[in-house]
């Protein structure tokens, strides 16, 4: 650490613990200043992104209206999909903030981030209390020895109960084996949407200076409780940097986002990259490379610097084969840092070249080579994904859940790719001669009147009820069962609870195989003709089940246009029109009234498709089809 005995008029200087840190960056040089590294973790929709946006805005790091969720899909869905880095300056201290996803399918993003920071802000909805992802990320944090700061958010909601939520959080800490020091966590109350925080909830619910927006109580708590990242910096130490995330730039190639644990990172610095593979250091592999550029974060932007020192979170370029968890060092003999583990995928499906009769109409990239190149590029940044490129015309893709795969497919179709995918299947593997499969814990909040149908339906899918608690007219269920049983259930759940239920899940790991599960209770309505669907024909077909298409939709033989309520496959002709006649009477003309269709999206398609069907995905359309289009071919395949 460089200790300065004097300040200069051209620099902003702050004194803390007898050490003066420079915060100005003249000529691109980054001088030492105190650093705090935190991650914001929470269950989906508990308000962590809104809270992060308010911190950035109030510290002047971003302009009004700027948001962490800048990806188009994140804005549309209102959830965080990709972890992002930001940095703010507050009272002479740089605070590096990592915003993490809240959905369980993107849990691998959270796991990697936790290794690089010194504390977490655990955001909990004051009305809902701890939820599955809260438990998951908190458990990981406690195992790493971190001391969380609990933020009880949304205390202005009518159903909020801060005292009950705080008690539930404490129970969760104790249940997860937190130490006495960890269990004695500080609590800050907040209304993240309004950018307000206080140490007493009553201060937020009354008018006054805080009502105009003030997060200083939270920021002061961060400075007080989070240990400085630069506390163990040694002058001239060997560089030790470990990436926890990857990015990609069309000009610079693969970029690594990591924390510097020791030394200094500079452009044009020759380094050694060490990979331990979970083995002793001497058994690892070492290769050489050169850092070409170094960036730090200011607000949401990355800023190129001449050097970055220990404790900071940086983005480096120039190492095209760098991977998460490896160690970048300037000393070939240095021991690698402990590896960062990434949880295994839980479900898999096949990506194939689209070969339907409508193939190539809408897509710009339709060949297997183009799909392969896109998947290889995705592997550069999506570490929760695995792809088997063994076959020339199909690719076996493994991910963490339906949403994880659906987001990839949605991004690809928006980029102009066209493909078809098979039904997702839970990954089954053998351990010590025993068949194993992924299990999940689900938490359901729903009106009490629906508890019977929920337990019955999930019981048929091999889920076992762990606990049931009731509060007034609502009930909370906790169940455990195989991931296979959850596939395709969410749409059924919405119908059974009339849209009033909330379901959340988290992966528990691999457990003994639960046996056969019968899930699909509807059949497919299959087109036997090619042409445009007519309202007259669909009017009659809608009585047999639920339709996926509207009048004037182009269909082809073998395309699935709906489902049948009786559970049997049915061949239909949606292009059939009304027979013409030269007799006109008012009694012969009936009004055609069509009920709303089941809008087929990628996620819905992945849920409801059968194992002998493909989901055809193009930039403009999502269609479901049989793998064998003609009835004769399907009959032959069943022999």
Question: What attributes does this structure have?
Answer:
639 residues; alpha+beta; 11-stranded mixed β-sheet; 22% helix; disordered N terminus
Question: How would you describe this protein?
Answer:
Helix 3 (107-114) runs parallel beside helix 4 and helix 10 crosses helix 15 (602-608). This protein has 16 helices and 37 strands. It starts with 12 loop residues before the first strand and ends with a helix. The longest helix is centred in the first third of the chain and has 14 residues, at 162-175. The radius of gyration is 28 Å and the shape is globular. The chain has 639 residues and is an alpha+beta fold. A hairpin with a 2-residue loop joins strand 4 (84-90) and strand 5 (93-99). The chain has five domains: 1-32, no CATH class; 36-225, P-loop containing nucleotide triphosphate hydrolases (Rossmann fold); 240-329, Translation factors (Elongation Factor Tu (Ef-tu), domain 3, Beta Barrel); 429-512, Alpha-Beta Plaits, CATH 3.30.70.240; 523-577 and 590-638, OB fold (Dihydrolipoamide Acetyltransferase, E2P), CATH 2.40.50.250. Strands 20, 21, 22, 23, 24, 30, 32, 34, 35, 36 and 37 form an eleven-stranded mixed β-sheet that branches. It has an eight-stranded antiparallel β-sheet with strand order 14-13-19-10-11-18-15-16. It has a seven-stranded mixed β-sheet with strand order 4-5-3-6-7-8-9, with helices on both faces.
